[in-house]
Amino acid sequence: MSEGVYKFLPAQLADRLRGLGLGVRKQMDGGMQGLHRSPAFGSSVEFAEYRAYVPGDPIRRIDWAVYARTDRHVIRQFHDEVNVRAYVLLDISESMAYPELAKTDGPIGSWGAMSKMDYASFLAAGIMYLTVQQRDSTALFTFDDEVRQVFDPVSSFVGLKPMLLALEDITPKRAGNIEKVLHSAAEKIAGRSLIVLISDLLQDPREVLRGIGHLTHDGKEVSVFHVLDPSELKLPMDGLCEIESLETREKMLVDVTQIRDRYLEKLRVYLDEVRTGCTNAGADYFLVDTLTDVRDALFRRCMPS
Amino acid sequence: MSAAASLFIYLLPLAALPVVFHLLLRRRRKKKVFSTLMFFHRVDPRLSSRRKLRELLLLACRVLLLVFLLLTLARLTLHATGGLLGLQGQQAVVVILDNSASMTAPAAGGSQSKLHLAIESAQALLDHLDKSAEAGVVLLVPDFVADLENSGMTTDRAALAKSLDRVQPTEASGNPARALTRALSLLQSAESAGSGTIHVFTDLQETEWSQPAPTAWGDGAAGGAHIVFHRISGTPVEGANVAIVQAELIGRRILPRQPANIQVLLRNEGTVPAKVLLNSEDDQHKTHSEMVPLEPAQERLVQLLVLPESPGYHWVKIWIEGDSFAGDNRAVVGYLCENKASVVLAGKQADYGVLPFALSPYADGRFTSLQLLYVPVDELRAQVEREKPVLAVLTWDDLGKLGQADWLGDFIKQGGNLGVLPPPEGAGEKGDVPAWLGAAIGVMEFSPKDMRLDVIDKTSSFWSSFRDTEGRLRLGQVFARHYQPLQLSKDAGFSSLLGPGPDKVVLATRKLGKGQVIVSGLAFDPQWTTLPRLKSMVVFAQAMALGGRTREPSGLYVAAGSPPPALLASGGDGVHIVSLVGDPFDWTGVRGQVPVFPRSGAYSIQVGQESFCLSVRSADQEGSRRFIETDVVPAAAGMPYTVRTLEETDLTEALNASRAGLPLYLPLLILAMLALVAESLLGAPPGNAKESNQRS
Prior knowledge:
The complex is a heterodimer. Chain A folds into two domains: 11-26 and 84-302, Rossmann fold, CATH 3.40.50.410; 33-82, no CATH class. The longest helix of chain A has 26 residues, at 256-281. In chain A, strands 5-4-3-6-7-10 form a six-stranded mixed beta sheet, sandwiched between helices. Chain A is 35% helix and 27% strand. The model of chain A is unreliable at 101-111 (pLDDT under 50). In chain A, β8 and β9 form a beta hairpin. Chain A contains nine helices and ten strands. Chain A is an alpha/beta fold. In chain B, β4, α6 and β5 (135-139) form a beta-alpha-beta unit. Chain B folds into four domains: 2-79, no CATH class; 84-236 and 625-660, 3-Layer(aba) Sandwich (Rossmann fold); 242-338 and 555-622, Immunoglobulin-like, CATH 2.60.40.10; 341-546, Rossmann fold, CATH 3.40.50. In chain B, the strands form seven sheets. Chain B has a nine-stranded mixed beta sheet. Chain B is of the alpha/beta class. In chain B, 25% of the residues lie in helices and 28% in strands. The interface between A and B is medium-sized, with 40 and 25 residues. β8 of chain A pairs parallel with β2 (30-34) of chain B, so a sheet runs across the interface.
């Protein structure tokens, strides 16, 4: 990969990501030999169990040491190790465009250096890069109220190129429906695989968690990157504001000073509900704001939990 | 409502300062985009609207605080009677004052008359009006003395007060329809263009106000006006009330030194017997008084004798004393006494017995104002046409010589009198009498002894001069020795005066046009009858001469307040009216515009070349004691009205109380304090509001 070609995977980021590995806790289904344990038995070095010899088994696999001690023919079985198919589900709904600088008086705060969409694109590119780097395969789904683009799993940097270029062409312009998309993804993605959901999750938490539950129920390992702008977390302004929703264009006149405390309280309850829901569903949950360094955010996922 | 310190009223616009500050200093609304409103919805979307509402309430409180403070400092006073009487604002007000005769009775509970109370109340009402309000006064009985008929709506209170001061009691009956129409037209001429209030101060006497309203007063006739009737109750009267129902001269020509009778009809309107004193006084200072008893509801005709000494206008005042209501007790009779009149007799004096002496003893007009002229029969026509006598006298024989003599018939039809009688030697058959006469004379009859002649038709107007003050016929006993019965045509309409019996008439009279014909079968000779020997002979001769009318009418008679007589009611001829007695009045105008006469009096009237006398008596129906006690006034049906009873002092007190008004200082101060408290509560720091929200 030549330096500076991809907007969301610059060379500096790629360099900083080297050395990180993307692990999974669950057994994965993979088509190729890889680093990750498979539920099937295979030819890895990791012992799984003994079983009685049956005619037809290769004689070379008889554990003669056990035969010497027990006078029985048993065969040693090993876990298979396969590669991982990591599916990145990237939310491209209009709320991800926040903070959008082209609006009337500007977004609230504008603390973040980039929009949530850009930040999420960096995350997606990083994850896909990490995946391919460790010889796993990766795929990309973009969605808003339905799945918009699907890139099949690839395991090479060459195959990664269209996805990286596609990230640069994304323009959020529709309202999102995360639950619907997650249900749809659970239907489309077969087998046990890694699902990385990158979204602001600005939807009823119960609906989002129903979608995540569907994925985990199918045996998929789900990691959720909950991307929010710092202004969404702090509401850093005062006074009377006419606030317009990016997705619905609905307007509301509020005194921010007056309602900030209650807003933050409701936000905390919301985040707690999402975090708890993800934990209960067996999904990894990472709340990141757009001021967080992308490598640091990815590093949190790569750390052994 | 009035303000003692109106400066603060002018400062009221300062109350808008909070609004100005609010607009200038309010926080600007910033427009922001955000990823979602999810959390704002969860917070409580009503918070913003609550805040907005609180801001508006706070603003309103501050404005109200300033308004109440300024009004408090202005020391406002509330005048609350406008709603009841319709006096608020710039409304036009017309006062209808009932000045009819019934209003001269004392008001209930007080010593003053109903009219006095009405004037005082009207004055108080007008004083209470706003300075710029237009007002007008209408009298129920138009009174030229008060001179209000040509006045319009004005804001000049002094002029209105003077007008009310000129209002005097009348003896007339009012016309509510005319007064209401006049009041409505005044309202129409006001700036309010018809809307306003008509205040009627009246006793609501049934004879006036029970008359149904004109059909023209349908929907919209009031034109936005509202009528308030202020009913003035009177003191109940139980005594007798005698009214002069009629006072007229008996219809005949009046000559100097010729007695004439005035018939005065009295009626007792009360429920108890009455004994009243009937008085009269004429322009020659002749007075007369007599006591007249009357039972309840009884009518009585009384005759008064007048004897003018000279030609010209004369009058007689007649009034009653001794009853409970004086408003209907007066009458004035005016009459025109003509100069000397002539009587033409055909033939010689000896042909008529004592008749010439009874007509004029000296034949030159002394004593009776009648001059006698004797002319040959063939010159009779020329003499009659030249002299226009009041009476032409012929014998039956001479009349037969004249043939049909249509000119003589025309003379009678134009008001002349004709006497036809037999000569002392008796009437023979010398030709046919004119057919228009309707009578002929029969053959002479002799009676061995004097035959009594009776009055056959006692109701004939010919006998009116023979009646005494109680109406009894005073002819005396008349006997006859010779007579020639008359043959009267049934179609001629003769009234039989004397005769031995109804089937045998010797003296008869009939009207022919404006004049009268007297036919006699008796010669006025002592050899024929005893009539010449009686004092009644003089009266008989005068009745023959003056019974017919050469002028029509000889007099006009109306009740006060009634429309002018038909002779003056229409037409465009010039009329000149001058009062003889009563209210001073000198009016020149045209027929159809003759005013109503509010009080008894006598007036000379000149219409073209004709002169008349108008006699006005008090309105007898004003003595009626029936008043509308309910809230329904038929005369105002079709128009919006209310009826309230006016006590002697309540209106004045109410208006005075309203003038004093209710001071609003304390209520406004309390309201200002309440506004201040509300402002303090609403203006509390948001933290307090938040805590209260959390508690809720």
